[in-house]
Design brief:
This protein has about 375 residues and is mostly helical. About 40% of the residues lie in helices and about 0% in strands. Strand 1 and strand 2 (about 35) form a beta hairpin. It binds a DNA duplex (15 and 15 nucleotides) through helix 4.
DNA sequence: GTCGTAACGGTTGAT
DNA sequence: ACATCAACCGTTACG
């Protein structure tokens, strides 16, 4: 059975590639629903957007999953993420956790050691906490302190050994925080993972990064907003990294007809299709790019409207606020009276949608020109 | 049938 | 240049 699935999967891939893109070199895998994906890589923004968009139309996640041929787990994840953050974007991939052994910390450790050469690492750790040099989230481990003592401080007869070879601590700290704008306490998501997006109300705090993520990722802004946005004003405002993955053919397989949906013009979708990762055009709605090396962490760091201290559904006092926070849909968009957040859980699963079945069908069937069968249930 | 989620194998980027 | 690590990804399977 597993073998058959593999064979079938391989066949599907081959089929998709050969029959649809005989001359294009592409890659990807086909999931159980027949959808094409690239393992390890986020879905294109166009699809992510569509998922949220359809959900806002009241279409059930299972139907979205089938229609877009995206696993329901993924649909669930994207919707959950959106409901929490208002962002359709994936998180920042790669990179390392912020270093805790900043020059300032090292300096303090050295001071402690100089003041008391017999001090234990755990004592240093306690002092770092007591003195407010670190908090419980970024205090170095005892082993780290030991390593610092061994490697960076070692010979205390050369007290300036470290500083002479490193930049000034404050400066380094600043630059560091600029790269990792989230502060530890708030950057910790409930599950303890770093920067996983949902519920990461990174206050500017001591970081003071005023890079307000304008929440243009929000569907509020994305859906149908483009029509009245000054294209020229926003064009070129974003520079995505040149790294583009060859999603074009894959996405064309999924979206053979990416025409306007809910105000998103074809160029927006196409640009995403070109790829996928933050496109120059879609970036009009998605200006902060998780993939931009210079700002990828900023995606989740902005104190702006995309993060919601407190309740994610409250208005962020922004025109680009979350859909459920009094968003103003443009013509052609859906005025959704329902709370987007898991309506099915609110006890009003039936009817699951404010829309008629027919409207939902139309929404689904017009998604990208495909007339895929929707749930027969 | 639907949905949430852990496990898994994968990619990415900083160190 | 390469390896390691830890973040993220979407799919799959299970409950």
């Amino acid at each position: 059975m597993e073998f058959m699935k593999k064979v079938l999967s391989a066949f599907m891939i081959e089929y998709v590639h050969v029959s649809l893109f005989p001359s294009e070199q592409t890659y990807g895998e086909v999931n159980q629903l027949g959808g094409v994906f690239v393992n390890g890589r986020p879905l294109p923004n166009a699809i992510r957007l569509r998922i949220v968009e359809l959900a806002q139309l009241g279409i059930r996640p299972c139907d979205i999953s089938r229609q877009l041929r995206v696993s329901h787990g993924c649909v669930s994840k994207i919707l959950a993420r959106y409901s929490e953050t208002g962002s359709i974007l994936p998180g920042a991939i790669g990179g390392s956790k912020p270093r805790v052994t900043t020059p300032n910390v090292v300096k303090n450790i050295r001071d402690y050691k100089q003041g008391d050469p017999g001090i234990f690492a755990w004592e240093i750790r306690d002092r770092l906490l007591a003195d407010g040099v670190c908090d419980k989230y970024n205090v170095p481990s005892v082993s780290s302190i030991s390593r610092i003592l061994r490697n960076k401080i070692g010979n205390l007869s050369q007290p300036n050994q470290y500083e002479s070879s490193k930049q000034a601590p404050t400066q380094a700290g600043l630059s560091y925080n600029h790269i990792y704008p989230y502060s530890y306490p708030n950057a910790m998501s409930p599950n303890g993972k770093m920067g996983s997006g949902p519920g990461v109300p990174v206050t500017a705090g001591h970081v003071n990064i005023s890079r307000a993520w304008p929440s243009a990722h929000t569907v509020t802004n994305i859906l149908g907003i483009r029509a009245f946005m000054d294209h020229q004003a926003i064009a070129g405002a974003e520079g995505y990294p040149p790294k583009m993955e060859d999603w074009s053919s894959i996405n064309r397989a999924t979206f053979p007809s990416a025409h306007a949906v809910s105000g998103i013009d074809k160029s927006a979708i196409d640009a995403d299709i070109k790829y996928a990762q933050p496109s120059s055009t879609l970036s009009s709605y998605v200006p902060a790019c998780a993939y931009s090396p210079s700002n990828q962490y900023g995606v989740y760091s902005g104190p702006g409207s995309y993060v919601t201290p407190g309740h994610p559904w409250q208005s962020q006092n922004s025109s680009l606020s979350h859909p459920s926070s009094g968003m103003t849909m443009h013509a052609g968009d859906i005025h959704s009276p329902m709370p987007f957040k898991h309506p099915s859980r609110e006890g009003d699963r039936k009817p699951p949608s404010p829309l008629s079945k027919q409207l939902q069908q139309e929404a689904l069937s017009s998604v990208h020109g495909l007339n895929l069968p929707t749930s027969s249930s």
